[in-house]
Amino acid sequence: MKLFFISDIHGSIYYLNKAMEQCKKEEPDYIIILGDELYHGPRNPIPKEYNPEAVANLLNIYKDKIIAIRGNCDSEVDQMVLKYPIMSDYSMILYNGRRLFLTHGHIYNEENLPNISKGDVLIYGHIHVPVAKEQEGIFIINPGSITLPKENTPHCYAVLEEDIFRIKTLDGDTYKEISIA
C-alpha cells in the first residue's frame, strides 16, 4: 500500500495543484490530509492564489481516496463544502503491523504524544516543518506544509511505501527519509 501525505494547504489552489501533480505521479492508494485545508488562519499571510472554493472542488474529486483530519483552522463550515469527513481530531491506520496515528498537531504532537506504543508512528502537520525521526521507539513524521513552509524549509509532501517515509519537495525530490521497518 502506498500513502500520500499533505498538510497545511491553507486554501492555496496554486500549491495544491503542484501537490496533486506529484500525487498523480506517485499513484498512491490513499491521500492523507493532516488538516488546515481551506482557511489560511489569522496568524498566516494570505497564500498564493488563495481560493478555498477551488481547493474544495479539487479535493472533492478525490473524496473516495482521502482520509483527513481536522486542523486548528478547519471548521464546520469547511465540512459543509467538502465531500469527505474532516472533523475528527485524529484517525488511525493499521499499516504492516503498526499503528499510524494521524493528527494535525495542535493537540497531539511530539511534546504531547497520544497513547501509542513503541514501533507506532505519529504523523502530524501544524508546525509547517518537515520531520522524520525516531524518539524513544516511536516514529515521528511531519510532511511539512505544501503552502506555507517555515524555518527556511521547502514546500513538501510525504509518501509512505514499503516501510519507507520519504518527505519530498513539490518537485518530487527527496528531502528527508526514514525507515519504519
UniProtKB/TrEMBL annotation:
Calcineurin-like phosphoesterase domain span:
1-161
Cross-referenced CDD domains: MPP_YfcE
UniProt xrefs under InterPro entries = Calcineurin-like_PHP_lpxH, Metallo-depent_PP-like, MPP_YfcE, Phosphodiesterase_MJ0936/Vps29
Q: Which cofactor does it need?
A: a divalent metal cation
Keywords (A to Z) from UniProt: Hydrolase, Metal-binding
Q: At the top level of its lineage, which domain of life is listed?
A: Bacteria
Kindly give the SUPFAM superfamilies that the UniProt entry links to this protein: Metallo-dependent phosphatases (SSF56300)
GO MF terms, alphabetically ordered: hydrolase activity; metal ion binding
Gene3D superfamilies attached to this UniProt entry: 3.60.21.10
Q: What class of enzyme is it?
A: hydrolase
**The protein's Enzyme Commission number:** 3.1.4.-
PANTHER family in UniProt:
VACUOLAR SORTING PROTEIN VPS29
Concerning its family, UniProt says:
Belongs to the metallophosphoesterase superfamily. YfcE family.
Name of the protein this chain belongs to: Phosphoesterase
